[in-house]
Amino acid sequence: MAKHSLLLTALGVTAACAAGYTVVPTIYNKRIRRDMVRTIPQQNAVMLTFDDGPDPRYTPALLDLLKKEEVHATFFVVADNARENPAIIKRMQAEGHTVALHALSHRCAWLSSGRYTQYEFAQSVQILASMGVTPRYYRPPWGYTNPHTLPTARRYGMRPILWSVMAEDWSARSTADVITDKLLARVKGGSIICLHDAGENSGGAPGAPTRTIQALARVLPILKGRGYHFVTPQQVQL
Questions:
Q1: Contact, 36 vs 67, CB < 8 A?
Q2: DSSP category for residue 38
Q3: CATH class in words for 36-236
Q4: Which terminus of the chain has a lower count of CB atoms within 10 Å, N or C?
Q5: Which Pfam families is this protein grouped with (predicted)?
Q6: How far is CA 227 from each of CA 7, 79, 189, 221, rounded to the nearest angstrom?
Q7: pLDDT per residue over 101-119, tens digit each?
Q8: Whole-prediction pTM
Q9: What is the largest CA-CA distance in the chain?
């Protein structure tokens, strides 16, 4: 009986420690922390952001669409993907988009020690610096954080940015029509929209970004017709 109680106590302590390292920081940062950016203070503007790229199968087509619509976006890139596609990063910069940091390899912060978290940021910053990028903004994969995530981001001078609108565009069930309907129903003034320009390498469905691009081809003109303009973090001084 005593052994059983000790085992339950040990399991409870382990669970509490795990929650303190993973769930508690994530909930606090996502929902409560005041300096975490979730919206922008302009009711006639929205911020369009993309995670997980660059991906040579999808990102160039997305950039073509943004150029056609004269829309600037923010790309939270995976540094390993950026290293493999430097020409896409250069094109983003040349066309007025903001290149920000998402991760080194899209690893969940819940599985990362403090030492690995510091390594991930150091490596990511080094990779992007080799392309002339000094990231000023950061978005953790899935919005998950541990106690080391945001202090390390700030040490490198990065402001964390989350989102207020998603359209579940990574899902195999999300057709272009579904994504279109969700965006038009959810976007309002001040929204930060989170979409994805990479798929399989970060847990998305095969070909998912193609459907996202198809949806945006319909959505962007409609949002502009509603009077919204698209801004980057620098333009709203985040």
A1: no
A2: -
A3: alpha beta
A4: N
A5: Polysacc_deac_1
A6: 61, 35, 9, 10
A7: 999 998 877 677 889 999 9
A8: 0.90
A9: 71
